[in-house]
Write a structure and sequence with these properties.
The structure is a single chain. By secondary structure, the chain is α+β, with helices and mostly antiparallel strands. Helix content is 24%, strand content 16%. It has 3 helices and 4 strands, in the order ααββαββ. The chain has a two-stranded antiparallel ribbon with strand order 1-2. A two-stranded antiparallel sheet has the order 3-4. A hairpin with a 5-residue loop joins strand 1 and strand 2. The longest helix is centred in the N-terminal third of the chain and has 13 residues. It is elongated.
């Protein structure tokens, strides 16, 4: 809402409309600003990541402590190589490394994709998180809670 308000003010100022001539924005009015509907505006960029060779026990403890459900797995080039879900971890596999149980086939999204596209991916693949990548490099993560 604040982005829409700021964009409206900016557009009116650029067209030299005096403030006194501005009409109130109706709450029902359909204002669509493409940039405000992109993944970039909703994703989390400060993401806890792990290495494929990390101890699963350690990663699990951090996930529980930080209340994280999904952790992207990256290599030394910051490229996404998998994702770990807390649902995939069980007491039987805690004494192994992340690479043994991480999902290697990861559904991803671009920061320029629309939220509509993200919702489609969440529904189609029955997932609740989407790593945001650019040419395999992890930029952030988008979850169903973010939108």
């Amino acid at each position: 809402a604040s982005q829409i308000l700021a964009a409206t003010i900016y557009n009116k100022q650029m067209r030299d409309f005096p403030v006194a001539s501005w009409k109130l924005i109706e709450s029902e009015s359909e204002m669509s600003f493409k940039s405000a509907n992109t993944v970039k505006h909703f994703m989390t960029t400060s993401v806890f990541t792990v290495d494929a060779n990390d101890s699963l026990q350690l990663v699990y403890n951090i996930m529980v402590w930080k209340k994280i459900n999904h952790v992207p797995v990256i290599n030394t080039k910051k490229e996404l190589v998998g994702i770990l879900s807390i649902k995939d971890i069980s007491p039987e596999n805690l004494n192994t490394t992340v690479d043994k149980i991480m999902r290697k086939q990861v559904v991803t999204i671009s920061e320029s994709d629309t939220i509509k596209r993200a919702k489609q991916l969440f529904t189609t693949h029955k997932i609740s998180s989407l790593p945001v990548v650019q040419e395999k490099r992890l930029l952030g993560i988008l979850t169903t809670k973010d939108i």
